[in-house]
Design brief:
- With about 250 residues, the chain is an alpha/beta fold.
- It has ten helices and eight strands.
- Helix content is about 40%, strand content about 15%.
- The chain binds 2-phosphoglycolic acid (PGA).
- 2-phosphoglycolic acid (PGA) binds next to strand 8.
Length: about 250
């Protein structure tokens, strides 16, 4: 399976800025990707449709940063799966640590979002990861177990394996400039692979596991070669076309 390089733009870029970055990125890459890579860009909701229409035929896929697990109705401020699909996007992020910690989303809610999005035809990158406090208390395994068990509790079946991706993002490495070291990444990805075996069974070798947390052009090529690392989820360093292009080609 191809490696995924994903750009999480968070609360950055209006429509005009998003289109400019996508156009510039495409120009740097000659409108094509390295053979073994897929690129997914997650703009803010308000810039999503402009982003998916930025290029007549571009090499990028698109996703939303969040979703509400209902078809429609009285959910002020929320966005449904069909609205995301209608905007031309195919992917959604669930369980990002900023939503867990700033917006207080718990594992149950992340699980509802994940299963509903998949059932509605969206592909999902579900994020997991421990805080520094949890790591220092030796709780890495327990935290990942609880997050994965609940996030993946009610997956629709059958589910083709390329539609669900896990991102390991240690909370202490996100936006801090502190990357997890190679041993930390290998250990966490091995735990996730093992847990996935129990939760989703036979297709697990095809479930891609991304690393995220202060990935930049300088460390991307080393991280992406580590065992069980099937791609990268990039925040800050994906905002500039030039640095993101270097990560894609790393
Ligand atoms: P960062 O963010 O690359 O800026 O650390 C990663 C993420 O939050 O997905």
């Amino acid at each position: 399976m191809k490696k995924i390089i994903a750009a999480n733009w968070k609360m950055n870029k209006n429509s005009k800025e998003a289109v400019e970055t996508i156009t510039e990125l495409s120009a740097i890459l000659n409108n094509s990707l390295p053979d073994e890579k897929e690129v997914i860009i997650f703009p803010p909701f308000i810039s999503l449709e402009a982003s998916t229409h930025a290029l007549v035929s571009g090499p990028f896929q698109f996703g939303a940063q969040d979703i509400y697990p209902a078809k429609e109705g009285a959910f002020t401020g929320e966005i449904s799966p069909s609205m995301i699909l209608d905007a031309g996007a195919a992917w959604v992020l669930t369980g990002h640590s900023e939503r867990r910690h700033i917006l207080h989303e718990n594992n149950t809610f992340v699980g509802q979002k994940t299963s509903f999005a998949l059932a509605c035809g969206l592909n999902v990158i579900a994020c997991v990861g421990e805080t520094l406090e949890e790591r220092e208390a030796g709780k890495l395994y327990d935290v990942l177990t609880a997050q994965l068990n609940q996030t993946l509790a009610k997956l629709p079946t059958p589910l083709s394996p390329e539609r669900l991706v896990i991102a390991y993002e240690p909370v202490w490495a996100i936006g801090t400039g502190k990357t997890a070291n190679n041993e930390d990444i290998i250990e966490a990805h091995a735990i996730i692979r093992e847990l996935l075996k129990d939760i989703i069974g036979t297709s697990v070798s095809q479930t891609r596991i991304l690393y995220g947390g202060s990935v930049k052009a300088e460390n991307a090529s080393e991280i992406i070669k580590l065992e069980n690392v099937d791609g990268l989820l990039v925040g800050g360093a994906s905002l500039k076309a030039e640095s993101f292009a270097k990560i894609i080609c790393a």
